[in-house]
Amino acid sequence: MTAVLEISGLRKTYRGRKGVRNALDGFDMVVEAGQVHGFLGPNGSGKTTTLRTLLGLIKPNEGRMSILGREVPKHLPEVAREVGAIVESPQFFGNFTAETTLSLLADAGGVNRNRVYSVLDLVGLRDRSKERVKTYSLGMKQRLAVASALLKEPKLLILDEPANGLDPGGIREMRTLMRDLSAAGMTVLLSSHILGEIQLICDSVTIISAGKRVTSGSVAEVLARHKSGAVKVRLEPGVDMMGAAQILRAAGAAVTLDTDHFTVGNASNPAQITKLLAQQEIYVTELTPVAADLEDVFLELTGTAPVEGQNRQVDETAMSAAGKGGWGQ
Amino acid sequence: MSLARAESRRLFKRRFTKLLMVGVLLILAAVAAGTYLSNQKVSAGQIAEAKAEANRDYQAGLVSAEQEKQKCLAAEGTPEIQNWGGSCENIYTPSPEDYDYVWYMPASFELRQEFPDMISVFAVVLAAAAFLIGASFVGSEWNSGGMMNLLLWRPQRLRVLGTKMAVFLGWLTGVSLLLAAVWTGVFQLIAQFRGTTDRMTSGVWQSFGLMGLRGLALIVVAGALGFAMASLGRHTGMALGALIGIGAVQIGVYVMAQLAGAKYPDVFLAPLWLFAWLYKEFVVEDYTSCDYSSTGGCELDQFTMTWQVAGTGTAVLVVLVVGAAMWTMRSRDIT
Ligand SMILES: Nc1ncnc2c1ncn2[C@@H]1O[C@H](COP(=O)(O)OP(=O)(O)O)[C@@H](O)[C@H]1O
Ligand SMILES: [Mg+2]
């Protein structure tokens, strides 16, 4: 497989009144051809900044990027024809109709104007295409943005949080659309923080936190690499679960009780559980690792899981939090 | 080329452009209609009559001046001489020029005499519209995010902004020339039906042509400044704000110059530059000075602002502002 998109060592600092902010801090990313690639990260982690830099809207301080094998921003004018993109919330001149907006873009980019109708149909705006964009709902503007990105029949489609503002039906349509596009050979890069969405449609993911890549790979790989570390423990019927939980808690385990079983959240060495309980003559009937989903991995890697009694601030992430260790090593 | 075509379409699809063009046409039509209605053709008989009447009034003026002089001379040596400022030399004797026969006729449109003012009206109205259309053409594009979208399609910033500006200025020039031709035709007709086209030599036409070209330059400059300032500020309002700011600074500088005792504070006022540019020169006088001579009385010191000076100053300003707009377009982060 060939890489359609490669980024390495990307750095971008914004200078503001309150000093310097490292929006990107040595970020790397690779997207293979033909995949739907999820680009995940909490708010303010640098997703939009990455995409803007890639598309030549902002200048990076450092780093190399290439699209379709050609270095950008140097060769951006040539590759731009192959890249359809929406960045952040869709923005259009409100007094033009969807049709006018797209046909002007088609003209500017040298694309046949006839494509306008087919893309408007594709995103479900055909019947409203003669109304002014100003009168559209957020979701409709989002659809128009997707239409504008598709207008070029790009090889690489970059969508920054496309599900923003879409209704459930719209999200599902978008999912189907992306599947179809990818099946037709298009590479799709999809930034999002809606993880269920990504898990459903993405072949691979990159997770970014505080301007750095924290993990990447196919969804299965990422999940396997970051087992949740939680195990489900079931005891012989009639045995005092509370007592068992006490014993484990005393040893530092994070135990969550359920009706017929309990979960140890931070069991990096499950053998410890059987050992501790067996010493008290309590025997385990079931000990299964809890499968992680993308959300768990995301929360763990980015350190943005909510903690009771605390209000997490947007820039508090795994990078800024104190190191966490497993229990039972 | 495709970019230029897209920008042409965009320019004329904008409601603001259409609205202002209609507004300009209405204003110009109103001026032409007003001129037509307030002037009329005068016959040779009317002219002779007006000349006779002017002459009668001139003679009467002479007579009363003579009487006044006699009274003054009689009062010489008495304190009453003070009524005439102490000397009879100051009594004014009217000249025939003080009784222009034109004032004794109904208003009549003389093309040679009055068309230059009509060129100015045309140029100023179109320049104002050009400033607004230029500012909004690029300003609302920045403001709405359309510019960012366009740059995703054509990631060549200078080319995008340059094409946009060139397309706008090109259309502006074309439309101005077309309207100017119509404007000239209309006033020639007005002169024919409501006045006179006498004394219209080719030299006069040439001078109108040159003034018209200076007017066109004014229109294009106004458009370019509006465009560049709105692009610099990434908002239509920024161009208007900058205009108001410049106006305020000007008045401030004018007042400061006056307080500081500058000889010709008026040269800091842009409307005078405008006047000098269109009418080739503008003379400012220092009213506090007096160069006395027995023949001419008090002669005030004068400073003549020429159209070359006004033009050069404005050209420098345009180069700076447009250059700044291009430079920031090249280097800024678009977020
Ligand atoms: N124009 C800007 N000026 C200053 N800081 C910015 C600017 N744009 C983004 N940032 C900062 O850069 C960081 C990354 O932002 P962004 O890439 O938009 O995050 P997200 O992953 O939510 O898309 C944030 O901390 C944000 O505040
Ligand atoms: Mg974002």
TrEMBL record, chain A:
<dbReference type="GO" id="GO:0005524">
    <property type="term" value="F:ATP binding"/>
</dbReference>
<keyword id="KW-0067">ATP-binding</keyword>
<keyword id="KW-0547">Nucleotide-binding</keyword>
<dbReference type="GO" id="GO:0016887">
    <property type="term" value="F:ATP hydrolysis activity"/>
</dbReference>
<dbReference type="InterPro" id="IPR003593">
    <property type="entry name" value="AAA+_ATPase"/>
</dbReference>
<comment type="similarity">
    <text>Belongs to the ABC transporter superfamily.</text>
</comment>
<feature type="domain" description="ABC transporter">
    <location>
        <begin position="5"/>
        <end position="235"/>
    </location>
</feature>
<feature type="region of interest" description="Disordered">
    <location>
        <begin position="309"/>
        <end position="329"/>
    </location>
</feature>
<keyword id="KW-0813">Transport</keyword>
<dbReference type="InterPro" id="IPR017871">
    <property type="entry name" value="ABC_transporter-like_CS"/>
</dbReference>
<dbReference type="InterPro" id="IPR027417">
    <property type="entry name" value="P-loop_NTPase"/>
</dbReference>
<dbReference type="Pfam" id="PF00005">
    <property type="entry name" value="ABC_tran"/>
</dbReference>
<protein>
    <submittedName>
        <fullName>ATP-binding cassette domain-containing protein</fullName>
    </submittedName>
</protein>
<dbReference type="InterPro" id="IPR003439">
    <property type="entry name" value="ABC_transporter-like_ATP-bd"/>
</dbReference>
From TrEMBL, chain B:
<feature type="transmembrane region" description="Helical">
    <location>
        <begin position="239"/>
        <end position="257"/>
    </location>
</feature>
<dbReference type="GO" id="GO:0140359">
    <property type="term" value="F:ABC-type transporter activity"/>
</dbReference>
<keyword id="KW-0472">Membrane</keyword>
<feature type="transmembrane region" description="Helical">
    <location>
        <begin position="166"/>
        <end position="191"/>
    </location>
</feature>
<keyword id="KW-0812">Transmembrane</keyword>
<dbReference type="GO" id="GO:0005886">
    <property type="term" value="C:plasma membrane"/>
</dbReference>
<keyword id="KW-1133">Transmembrane helix</keyword>
<protein>
    <submittedName>
        <fullName>ABC transporter permease subunit</fullName>
    </submittedName>
</protein>
<feature type="transmembrane region" description="Helical">
    <location>
        <begin position="309"/>
        <end position="329"/>
    </location>
</feature>
<feature type="transmembrane region" description="Helical">
    <location>
        <begin position="211"/>
        <end position="232"/>
    </location>
</feature>
<feature type="transmembrane region" description="Helical">
    <location>
        <begin position="118"/>
        <end position="138"/>
    </location>
</feature>
